[in-house]
Write a structure and sequence with these properties.
226 residues; mainly alpha
Length: 226
């Protein structure tokens, strides 16, 4: 019976203290521990807040400084490129002038050669007609000189047609060479290389024998007019 009141007192004191003394201690310590643990939470949360935005803020600044420096240099390079193409233009003009001079010189040389050939042919034919007793001036008249050549060869006038047939005039030149005492080789030379064989026959020592093989005296020269 004495223990009963003691149990009642113990239970009452338990209710007043909110539990056992150990529980009371834990309840009293936990708020302080929570207050002490809170600051590290703030530090850990603040650390990423300071470091995270710092890196992206610095990286875009670098291209912003380099961007204006790039377009400033190409301006003098373009000026140099504008002046360089003048040299090829001058060289092309010089080449064109050199080609024109060369063409002109070549044309003049060819014209000189042609004039020499014409003079030799006229002079050789003139002398051949003179040896055959024909007027020398007939050698410079077109078509009529062909007729006189047929007469010197001892052929009829219709042999003029032979000069319009390929290789047919060889027969006329063979007859002329024979009438001057030359062989067939000389007559072929008169056909293929007339610029050489006509002066040789005209200015050579051979005389005109005619179709009958008799020498023919040269045509008399007309006296000079008073």
């Amino acid at each position: 019976m004495k223990t009963y009141p003691l149990l009642l007192l113990a239970s009452f004191s338990f209710l007043l203290t909110g539990g056992s003394p150990l529980l009371a201690q834990t309840n009293t310590v936990s708020p302080t521990e929570s207050k002490e643990a809170a600051p590290p939470a703030e530090t850990t949360a603040a650390a990423p807040a300071e470091t995270a935005p710092a890196a992206p803020a610095e990286t875009p600044a670098a291209p912003a400084e380099l961007a204006p420096a790039v377009p400033a240099e190409p301006a003098p390079e373009k000026a140099v490129e504008m002046t360089q193409p003048q040299a090829p233009v001058e060289m092309s003009n010089q080449n064109t002038a050199a080609v024109a001079v060369a063409v002109l010189a070549g044309g003049m040389v060819m014209m000189g050669i042609w004039l020499v050939v014409v003079v030799l042919m006229i002079a050789g034919t003139w002398k051949i007609f003179t040896k055959a007793g024909k007027p020398g001036w007939t050698s410079i008249i077109p078509m009529y000189n062909i007729y006189v050549m047929c007469v010197v060869a001892g052929k009829p006038a219709w042999w003029i047609i032979m000069f319009f047939i390929p290789f047919a005039p060889i027969a006329v030149f063979l007859a002329i060479a024979k009438n001057f005492g030359k062989g067939a080789g000389f007559g072929i030379g008169m056909f293929f290389i007339p610029v050489v064989f006509f002066p040789m026959l005209g200015f050579g020592k051979s005389s005109f024998l005619g179709s009958e093989g008799q020498p023919t005296p040269p045509a008399p020269m007309s006296p000079p007019s008073a």
